[in-house]
């Protein structure tokens, strides 16, 4: 079979930039494999859909999904990251990606992270996104994180009042999604999907999700740092809006569809690519303009 494949070898120069790709596709209960010309998805009812993986940023694989070794190789060679996620909630479990051959951006990220002064400067740039009118001069990281905590709690309350939704606070029991109320379930799902997309973008640009500037001691601190820049609209506002629309009954398809529309609508990947480059020091630290 390998001899007769029609695949055209993908070169680095021919790959679209992360900002130009479709953000993600969520798949569950089926199989990903390849034939002589493409990666194809075969669902549980034997429907076949061919996937243009070079134009996809991330494949989110849910429960009941199997994938062949060749499909993994083909997807990551096209710079399409693969994330394993949970059902309904889209809980983020793991990611597979192509190791970048260019370590320039990673070295730059590490240089910034190991310097206390430079690391705080990057963290302040992130907080400026949330507090554009506040003077952060002289603020410590702990003080800024305290400000962020108050801000997020205020946003939850504001959205609850805006959409007329009852709110008792953020709660999530790992592995027991249904114990949470609908708003918290949607928040967990959209947060996890956002982590998956950003993890893919970070890898695609040659940075590490493990080296953060605000968060630490967690599996993906840099991804959590970035996610906080976009959560208010993509996750919090959406969760309260959908809670009202779903009238107390969680609907994973509606959540995925609405989240995807917001991601595309705000051009998240273009914005994230620019924000990451700005935070890390502009074009000089950016590979291939991504």
Order of helices and strands: EEEEEEHEEHHHHHHH
Compute the number of helices: 8
Largest sheet: 4 strands, mixed
State the helicity in percent bands.
40-55%
**Number of beta strands:** 8
Strand content: 5-15%
Gap between N and C termini, in Å? 35 Å
What integer is the average pLDDT?
85
Low-confidence stretches: 284-290
Please describe what this structure looks like:
Helix 5 packs antiparallel against helix 6, helix 5 (about 180-205) crosses helix 8 and helix 6 (about 220-245) packs across helix 7. About 35% of the residues are buried. Strand 7 (about 80-85) and strand 8 (about 90-95) form a beta hairpin. This protein has a four-stranded mixed beta sheet, with helices on both faces. The protein is globular. The two termini are about 35 Å apart. The chain has eight helices and eight strands. The chain has helices at about 70-75, 105-115, 115-130, 140-165, 180-205, 220-245, 250-265, 270-280, and strands spanning about 20-25, 30-35, 40-45, 50, 55-60, 65, 80-85, 90-95. It is of the alpha/beta class and about 290 residues long. Helix content is about 45%, strand content about 15%.
Sum up the structure in keywords:
290 residues, four-stranded mixed beta sheet, alpha/beta, globular, 8 helices, single chain, 8 strands, disordered C terminus
Short description:
By secondary structure, this protein is α/β, with parallel strands linked by helices. The protein is built from eight helices and eight strands. The protein has a four-stranded mixed sheet, sandwiched between helices. A four-stranded mixed sheet has the order 4-3-2-6.
């Amino acid at each position: 079979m390998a001899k007769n494949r029609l695949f055209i070898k993908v070169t680095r120069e021919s790959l679209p930039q992360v900002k130009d790709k479709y953000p993600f596709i969520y798949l569950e209960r089926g199989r990903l494999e390849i034939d002589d010309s493409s990666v194809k998805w075969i669902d549980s009812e034997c429907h076949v859909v061919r996937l243009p993986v070079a134009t996809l940023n991330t494949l989110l694989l849910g429960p009941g999904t199997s994938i062949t070794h060749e499909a993994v190789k083909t997807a990551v060679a096209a710079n399409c990251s693969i994330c394993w996620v949970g059902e309904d909630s889209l809980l983020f479990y793991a990611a597979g990606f192509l190791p970048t051959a260019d370590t320039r951006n990673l070295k730059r990220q590490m240089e910034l992270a190991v310097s206390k002064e430079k690391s705080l400067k990057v963290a302040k740039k992130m907080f400026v996104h949330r507090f554009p009118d506040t003077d952060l001069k002289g603020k410590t990281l702990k003080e800024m994180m305290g400000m962020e905590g108050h801000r997020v709690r205020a946003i939850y309350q504001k959205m609850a009042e805006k959409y007329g939704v009852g709110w008792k606070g953020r709660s999530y029991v790992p592995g027991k999604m249904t114990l949470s109320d609908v708003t918290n379930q949607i928040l967990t799902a959209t947060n996890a999907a956002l982590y998956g997309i950003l993890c893919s973008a970070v890898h695609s640009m040659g940075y590490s999700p493990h080296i953060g500037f605000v968060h630490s001691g967690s599996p993906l601190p840099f991804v959590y740092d970035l996610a906080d820049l976009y959560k208010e609209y993509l996750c919090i506002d959406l969760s309260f809006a959908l809670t009202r629309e779903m009238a107390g009954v969680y609907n994973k398809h509606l959540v995925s569809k609405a989240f995807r529309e917001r991601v595309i609508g705000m051009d998240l990947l273009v914005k994230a690519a620019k924000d990451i480059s700005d935070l890390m020091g502009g074009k000089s630290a950016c590979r291939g303009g991504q």
